[in-house]
């Protein structure tokens, strides 16, 4: 694959994001297999992780649904060919008008605050809604991606269940699903199962449920020997508990997840070219043709992406700090062991399939890179690199 990646960098230029469809399919099948004892399983791919329409079309062929957080993601899903009923919309802090517009499209609505719940239920009591619960469980690899704790802006607190039930009763609305998402990079499945028990307890309050959505946040390995969520063990334990709940509830419900990173992170790599090797009094910098405008996660979350030198994979290892070309500190790696780097070499950042392009920007008026999907043995360009015309697009020049 290293030779193919070098060819892609040569053909499409750098920097460039590359995704491997085989890995996406493998991860999707791995998750469905882990929960094969559940009668009704629905995986709703989290569009925010990687929203290229060709990737969405790939998920449609696998039988996936979509988890969306904005009306624009909903529109992308519809454009990719998904049926409205196969899309769940879980916004946070958006206007009632946006929620009403999405509901009018036939998409499943998921509401995470009492104010909107009451307003929506009063105006649209015949539109079933899912309710997002905050279980007050801290889970996730970083405070910025832990969303189920007591200070989180997400979800309706479990301590507000009496208020929630009063709104449901007063409006006459139907609740057809309950949902939680504790955070990303979950390692301790016992914590996840504990939060699930809170969701099961909440679900007992509603008699017309069709599904229970357990969110996602499963951790993937970021370096050799790194730990990850034990999906197989979670599948065995949660499936049994879910099936027992359905038996007590009186009918089979659908078990839903909304995986994003788990499905696409490992499929992606980010290729950059080394512009300069700079020796200072204390450090050797490898300065690449990118920055946090293209891959912000190391700076935002402290995430670690394995970096390999595709141009010299068998060379002698040296210590490098890999940095970008942005006019701020944009360090991808500090004193990392990488095979000897020369100017012009192509470096490969692994685990670049999730939250990399979707969080990219035009900071410093730099272009956002191309995206390539390696599918069935061939590299397909699925997004062109931007040009100066794109930078000026929508700007209006006035006479000064």
UniProtKB/TrEMBL annotation:
Modification N6-(pyridoxal phosphate)lysine, positions: 48
Gene Ontology terms: biological process: lysine biosynthetic process via diaminopimelate
Residues holding substrate: 297, 301, 328, 355
Pfam families: Orn_Arg_deC_N (PF02784)
Cofactor list: pyridoxal 5'-phosphate
Known role: Specifically catalyzes the decarboxylation of meso-diaminopimelate (meso-DAP) to L-lysine.
Stated family: Belongs to the Orn/Lys/Arg decarboxylase class-II family. LysA subfamily.
E.C. no: 4.1.1.20
Quaternary data: Homodimer.
PANTHER family associated with the record: DIAMINOPIMELATE DECARBOXYLASE, GROUP IV DECARBOXYLASE
Record: residues binding pyridoxal 5'-phosphate: 217, 355
Protein name: Diaminopimelate decarboxylase
Keyword Lyase: yes
Pathways involved: Amino-acid biosynthesis; L-lysine biosynthesis via DAP pathway; L-lysine from DL-2,6-diaminopimelate: step 1/1
Top enzyme class: lyase
CDD domains per UniProt: PLPDE_III_DapDC
Active site residues per record: 327
Keyword check for Amino-acid biosynthesis: yes
UniProt keyword list: Amino-acid biosynthesis, Decarboxylase, Lyase, Lysine biosynthesis, Pyridoxal phosphate
Record-level Gene Ontology MF annotations: diaminopimelate decarboxylase activity; pyridoxal phosphate binding
Catalytic function, reaction form: meso-2,6-diaminopimelate + H(+) = L-lysine + CO2
Protein source organism: Winogradskyella aurantia
Domain Orn/DAP/Arg decarboxylase 2 N-terminal as annotated: residue spans: 23-265
């Amino acid at each position: 694959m290293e030779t193919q990646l070098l060819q892609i960098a040569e053909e499409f230029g750098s920097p460039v994001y590359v995704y491997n469809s085989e890995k996406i399919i493998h991860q999707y099948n791995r998750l469905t297999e882990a929960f094969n004892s559940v009668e009704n399983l629905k995986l709703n791919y989290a569009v925010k992780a990687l929203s290229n329409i060709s990737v969405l079309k790939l998920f449609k062929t696998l039988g996936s649904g979509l988890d969306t957080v904005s009306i624009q993601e909903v529109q992308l899903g519809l454009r990719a060919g998904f049926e409205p009923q196969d899309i769940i919309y879980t916004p946070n802090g958006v206007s009632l008008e946006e929620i009403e517009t999405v509901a009018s499209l036939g998409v499943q609505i998921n509401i995470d605050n009492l104010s909107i719940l009451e307003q929506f239920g009063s105006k649209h009591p015949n539109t079933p809604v899912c309710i997002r619960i905050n279980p007050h469980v801290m889970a996730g690899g970083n405070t910025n991606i832990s969303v189920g704790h007591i200070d989180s802006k997400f979800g309706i607190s479990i301590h507000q269940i009496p208020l929630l039930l009063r709104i449901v009763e007063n409006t006459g609305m139907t609740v057809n699903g309950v949902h939680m998402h504790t955070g990303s990079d979950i390692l301790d499945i016992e914590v996840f199962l504990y939060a699930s028990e809170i969701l099961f307890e909440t679900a007992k309050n509603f008699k017309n449920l069709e599904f229970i959505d357990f969110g996602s946040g499963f951790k993937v390995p970021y370096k050799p020997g790194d730990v990850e969520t034990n999906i197989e063990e979670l599948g065995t334990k949660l499936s049994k508990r879910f099936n027992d709940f359905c038996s007590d509830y009186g009918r089979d419900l659908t078990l839903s997840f909304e995986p994003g990173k788990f499905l696409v992170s490992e499929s992606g790599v980010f290729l950059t070219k080394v512009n300069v090797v700079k020796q200072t009094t204390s450090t050797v910098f490898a300065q690449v043709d990118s920055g946090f405008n293209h891959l912000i996660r190391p700076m935002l979350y402290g995430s670690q992406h394995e970096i390999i030198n595709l141009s010299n994979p068998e060379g002698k290892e040296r210590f490098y700090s890999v940095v970008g070309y942005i006019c701020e500190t944009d360090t991808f790696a500090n004193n990392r062991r990488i095979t000897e780097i020369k100017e012009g070499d192509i470096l490969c950042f692994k685990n670049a399939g999730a939250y990399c392009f979707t969080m990219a920007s035009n900071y410093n008026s730099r272009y956002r890179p191309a995206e390539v999907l390696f599918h069935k043995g061939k590299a397909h360009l699925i997004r062109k690199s931007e040009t100066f015309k794109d930078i000026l697009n929508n700007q209006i020049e006035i006479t000064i």
